[in-house]
Amino acid sequence: MSEPDRQLAHDIFKQLIEINTTDSVGNVTTAADAMRQRLLAAGFPPDDLQLLGPNDRKKNLVARYRGRPGSTLKPVLIICHVDVVEARREDWTTDPFIFTEKDGFFYGRGTQDMKDADAAVVTSFIRMKREGFVPDRDIILALTADEEGGKSNGVDWLLTNHRDLVDAAFALNPDAGGLTTVDGKPLILTVEATEKTYADFHVTATNPGGHSSLPRKDNAMYELAHALLRLEASPFPFELNEVTRAEIKTYSQMVPKQEAADMRAILRTPPSKVALARLSTNPEYNSILRTTCVATMETAGHAPNALPGRAEANVNCRILPGHSAEEVRQDLIRLFNDKALTVDYVTDAGMVMGKGSERKSAPPPPLNPQVFKPLEATVAAMWPGIKIMPEMEPGASDSIYTMAAGIPSYGFSGMGIDRGDERAHGRDERIRADSYYKGVQFEYLYLKALASQ
Ligand SMILES: [Zn+2]
């Protein structure tokens, strides 16, 4: 990368970090508009730079890089949130909203999550435009609000209100997956290709109660306890999809002998039960192999000398693609097998409902070569020998919205974060300066490879 390009990447990053985009006192619109100004100055037509959102503080920028006229290829969409998690000056060594360069690192809120990638894509757009590069399809960049919290999620809002502006063959989300490094040296690049969905359920036992000097057989706390013990004893069934198959295959080439053998054994038909049981004792592997549900909170009783009139537990589930919250609620009801218990679904907004959402996240489509071929080429050019591992994210990112809208979504970036130095959402968030510039270059090379097939 030339010195002026490095400077450009530096300045955009600094500008984004120093615009506070927290939900409490920040302003996403200011950051989105600043990027709009930069793209405007680089020669993007105003009509291709739309600033829009549900309110003045949460406007998203949709920037369209026009492809070859007459191209029959559907656009690609890049989703990048510009909001950040709250950060308090007193918790940090440096001011989280001042871009600070220290000991080879850049410090500031959003340096890992994800203003580094925001800046990389904007820089790449400007560089490509300046060179006169014409992609073989439109590339749409959406800089969005409220991924971290707040009520105005930009990706959701754009898909609901302006589908035409962001419609695409597939989406890229640099917020997920990523490059793991050790002392700045790349180790592996993970690509998020599907996600589990999140659901809370309230399991409630009620009872007429009474005086505790006269205990009876029926007791709300015991009933709830029995149900939870059943949950403990009965894990959800083992199930793989395109992505987790590829993930386990890659893992099997990197882990100790016994684990590797177990992984190969569960990929066979029928899978080995012994191997499956052994792998399931590892929480990380277990989360890939099945839907998980676990008791996380409990409240019961109202007085030390009274029989409990009510006992309630929160059961948190992470659901495999292809299944709905209502399906899991029915599974729990069958598992508890106790008519005296109620199992309610809790919405994201905290509403308790007698029925779960029927929305199934789509089972992952086959890994798209239009995404992976240029990725393999770019990784081979920058970091030869580094493995690319597709993964299923047990948490959730904004890809949940694009995937639900039927747009297959892939999460990765070239921003190397040292293993053990993940500081997203935490204090003294930082990225190696060198890793940042390499990540910028990766984005540029990847987008050009992607749009020249
Ligand atoms: Zn993020």
Strand content: 15-25%
Ligands? zinc ion
Major beta sheet, strand line-up: 1-2-6-3-7-18
The secondary-structure class comes to alpha/beta
Oligomer: single chain
End-to-end C-alpha gap: 23 Å
The chain-level mean pLDDT equals: 95
What's the β-strand tally?
20
Shape: globular
Radius of gyration: 24 Å
Stretches where pLDDT is under 50 for at least 5 consecutive residues are none
The biggest beta sheet reads:
6 strands, mixed
- Share in helix: 25-40%
Count of DSSP-assigned helices: 14
Task: Give structural notes.
By secondary structure, the chain is an alpha/beta fold. Helix content is 35%, strand content 23%. The strands form five sheets. It has a six-stranded mixed beta sheet, sandwiched between helices. A hairpin with a 2-residue loop joins strand 4 (100-102) and strand 5. The longest helix is centred in the C-terminal third of the chain and has 18 residues, at 433-450. It is globular. The relative contact order is 0.18. Zinc ion is lined by residues 81, 113-114, 147, 175.
